[in-house]
Design goal:
Blueprint lengths: L12 E8 L2 E7 L9 E11 L1 H9 L1 E2 L2 E2 L4 E2 L3 E9 L11 E4 L9 H4 L7 H5 L14 E5 L3 E3 L6 H4 L2 H14 L6 E5 L3 H12 L4 E6 L2 H9 L4 E4 L6 H12 L5 E4 L4 H10 L5 E4 L11 H6 L3 E4 L7 H10 L7 E6 L3 H9 L5 E5 L2
Parallel strand pairs: 11-12, 11-14, 12-13, 14-15, 15-16, 17-18
Antiparallel strand pairs: 1-2, 1-6, 3-7, 3-9, 3-18, 4-5, 7-8, 8-10
Helix pairs in contact: 5-6, 5-11, 8-9
Bound molecules: zinc ion (ZN) (2 copies).
One zinc ion binds next to helix 2.
């Protein structure tokens, strides 16, 4: 069962390893073993960092996930194939790729019906979340079925957006966003902006975005959003809803909630058209107080979003066809500057910070 080709062993494999809360180190780790029959071996190109990584760095835990042993961080990666296992037919050496980091079992009922994002294995095999080592490293193996080839014309740093963009694609698929709809997006951070651009690509006719920071709304305007709503202290969900309806010229058919904040979820309930949908992308670890009777009487559908499924091809297509995504890559750091990258991310600088892994 030897692989067709393998990277010669012996070299150092530099990685960003979280030992415990606030203890992040650049260290040499072992080279991966030759890829298994269904795996590819990859040279990491770029890995984006996001709030999840910063949270893990600061707390060494995130919801149910806890760092029990040193963990390589990173889950938003582009790479180049350097070796393929003997059963691999979809990829060859030299292919540029993006990595779908949560690997399902491919055997349970959810996997068999295509809803593999519900597979329990995804939770323990999501690279970059404990206990599975992540992708801010120079070399690693990954199942070929969850390694997606990208066009050679797509910049490898921009390609690292595929993972968060896949969430937006899945959210738009869940909401069945279609031509001519009005959409309200809550939150103009990276997820909100990716989601607004995805909804626009799906044909939404008018999109308004809401945030508490004017600088973020300015970025949304630069990216072509139709309307912005600045949420100020003391405003109620009703105030924000009225502003959204004015901005959109009517109630949104769909509200895409990317903040997890209580006022935004209630704004979504206030604003969304009767019979409309609210997509819950933002997560809040706390319980929220929600006007459920209003949501019920308006027959609103509240839809959850768990990562993505079968969404990478569409995410790659979006990245390849729309140059505005290049504007997201505001900061690039070398692997040995990774601490600066995390500090920059913690300060809320830029839109997407990427680390060059080789
Ligand atoms: Zn992320
Ligand atoms: Zn499964």
């Amino acid at each position: 069962m030897s692989p067709k080709k393998s990277k010669a062993g012996g070299d150092a494999n530099k990685a960003i390893i979280l030992h415990k809360a606030k203890d992040l180190r650049l260290e040499n780790t072992s080279m991966p073993s030759p890829p298994g029959p269904d795996e590819v071996q990859l040279r990491g190109e770029y890995c984006g960092i996001c709030g999840t990584d910063v949270h893990l760095w600061q707390e060494a835990k995130l919801g149910i996930f806890e760092v029990q042993k040193p963990l390589i961080l990173g889950h938003e990666a582009s790479a180049t194939v350097i070796a393929v296992g003997q059963n691999v037919t979809n990829l060859t050496v030299g292919d540029p790729v993006v990595i779908e980091n949560a690997v399902p079992c491919c055997r349970c009922k959810f996997c068999l019906q295509g809803t593999y994002n519900y597979c329990e294995a995804c939770t323990v095999q999501a690279k970059g979340l404990p206990p599975a080592d992540g992708l801010i490293q120079q070399y690693y193996n990954h199942p070929a079925a969850f390694t997606h080839k990208i066009p050679p014309t797509l910049r490898l740093d921009v390609a690292a957006l595929a993972e968060p963009l896949a969430v937006s694609v899945h959210a738009c698929n869940r909401a069945k966003v279609t031509f001519g709809q009005k959409i309200l997006v809550c939150g103009a951070g990276t997820m909100g902006l990716l989601t607004f651009l995805t909804a626009k690509a799906y044909g939404a006719s008018r999109i308004a975005i809401l945030d508490i920071m004017q600088s973020k709304l300015d970025k949304a305007i630069e990216l072509g959003v139709d309307g912005v709503i600045l949420s100020r202290k003391g405003m109620t969900a009703k105030d924000l809803s009225d502003m959204a309806i004015t901005s959109l010229g009517g109630h949104p058919d769909i509200t895409m909630e990317c903040t997890g904040s209580e006022i935004c979820v209630n704004t979504a309930v206030e604003a969304t058209q009767c019979g409309g949908k609210i997509i819950l992308i933002g997560l809040n670890p706390n319980k929220l107080s929600l006007s459920m009777s209003k949501a019920s009487l308006k027959e609103l559908d509240l839809l959850g979003v768990c990562r993505y499924r079968n969404s990478y091809p569409q995410a790659v297509e979006l990245l390849s066809s729309r140059p505005e995504f290049e504007k997201f890559i505001t900061h690039t750091f070398q692997l040995d500057q990774a601490m600066d990258a995390f500090e920059s991310m913690q300060k809320g600088e830029g839109l997407k910070i990427v680390i060059k892994c080789n």
